[in-house]
Amino acid sequence: MKNRFATRAFALSFALAVGGGLSGCASTAANPKDPFEGFNRAMFAVNEGLDTVAFKPLAKGYDAIAPAPVKTGVGNFFGNIADVWTALNNLLQGKVGDAFSDVGRVLVNTTVGIAGLFDVATEMGLPKHQEDLGQTLAVWGVGDGPYFYWPIIGPRTTRDTFGWVVDIHADPVANLDDVSVRNSLLGLRFVDIRASLLPTDKVVEEAAFDKYNYVRDAYLQHRRSVIHDGNPPRELPED
């Protein structure tokens, strides 16, 4: 079965959540959007440990060794693949113009941009969008649900967790039949994304009195912003 690793990772995380006594964690939560804070902080610590011993060193090595044009090309290549799913989600959200623009980006960058290594479409006036199923479900009226911090995949609302499961099953890279090629590309994409986040590490460390709270609040604010295309409505205070 394709996407086996991603599905098993999610299933294991969910099993840990259920087995860990979420109701007990909920009683100590200070943020109403994060009722399972105890569990989430534990998973955050797990991810921090994995990042320290494995992910961050790999990202630093990649960032140091790979020339800037190579890193740009890698990011463009995977971004071009993601534009296909973005186009579909824009269409499902009723943003037909953006969907056609995304299709145009894929056609231009795949051909003129040599398999997406060069982002020619942006220079031609076809801006890049970022849409996923979690955003589409939000536009359809599905609520956030509780916030979770999962091992490996990081922060997600309940809605975004289920959206992510569908996103990964629709991912062309994760659906390649050649296992070695698929795993190599998935690994390269993961390391490339982690390397792109290295500049933010110091900012987070210096700005955050409580790193967990900082990451959670930043994630929720970001998702609220992208769901409303950068213009979120005023959020009413909780009762």
Structure described in brief:
With 239 residues, the chain is mainly α. It contains eleven helices and two strands; from the N terminus they run αααααααββαααα. The N and C termini lie far apart (46 Å).
Walk me through the topology.
Layout: H1 4-19, H2 22-26, H3 37-65, H4 68-92, H5 96-111, H6 120-123, H7 133-139, E1 147-150, E2 154-157, H8 158-169, H9 179-196, H10 198-207, H11 211-227
Antiparallel strand pairs: 1-2
Helix pairs in contact: 3-9, 4-5, 4-9, 7-8
Description:
- By secondary structure, this protein is mostly helical.
- It has two domains: 1-65 and 153-200, no CATH class; 68-130, no CATH class.
- It has eleven helices and two strands.
- Mean pLDDT is 89; it is low at 1-27.
